[in-house]
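Renewal narrative, Specific Aim 1. Our central claim is that a sequence can be written position by position from structural information alone. The example that follows is taken directly from our test logs and has not been curated for this report. It begins with the structure tokens describing the chain, in the order in which they were read.
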């Protein structure tokens, strides 16, 4: 019986599972003699090049990250009419709260104020986009949808409903002035 290397064991396990074995830390290419050679440091992660996966309800699966780039990736991956809603919401938040912090966590964009925590998030569902005001109970007028969390309130945006920029701006301004949620 011959001794198998770790790579051979991984390949065999992947074959039994019906998948291709994962590439190691280098990409493979065929050399002049037809043998496989490795290029150290070459990127082999196909997931980083693929389109984002849409989860239940069409919510994009976006890796967690801080700053504008992951939020813009989330918005770009929102399906159909929801992407335009995401762009409008993002622009509204940036206009109302200059210097707003942005991040993506749990496949949702979050908005906050440095040193105060997070005040707003949104998430795609099959028939609407859910705005989450993390301290929504303190907003006036009260956002219409209750949460299990007594402090959180929601607002649902459906297809073909125009955004009420004035109302959303008031809620965003109020929410940004409250102590936010330190979530992460």
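The sequence written for that structure reads:
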């Amino acid at each position: 019986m011959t001794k198998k290397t770790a790579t051979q064991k991984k390949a065999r396990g992947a074959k039994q599972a019906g998948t291709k074995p994962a590439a190691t830390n280098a990409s493979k290419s065929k050399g002049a003699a037809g043998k496989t050679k490795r290029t150290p440091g070459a990127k082999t992660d196909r997931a980083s090049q693929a389109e984002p996966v849409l989860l239940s309800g069409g919510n994009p699966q976006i890796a967690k990250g801080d700053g504008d780039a992951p939020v813009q990736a989330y918005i770009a991956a929102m399906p159909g009419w929801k992407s335009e809603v995401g762009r409008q919401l993002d622009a509204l938040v940036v206009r109302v709260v200059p210097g707003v912090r942005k991040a993506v966590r749990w496949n949702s964009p979050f908005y906050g104020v440095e040193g105060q925590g997070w005040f707003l998030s949104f998430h795609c569902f099959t028939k609407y986009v859910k705005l989450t005001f993390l301290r929504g109970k303190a907003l006036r007028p009260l956002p219409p949808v209750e949460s299990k969390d007594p402090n959180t309130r929601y607002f649902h945006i459906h297809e073909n409903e125009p955004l009420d920029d004035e109302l959303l701006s008031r809620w965003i301004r109020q929410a940004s002035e409250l102590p936010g949620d330190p979530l992460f």
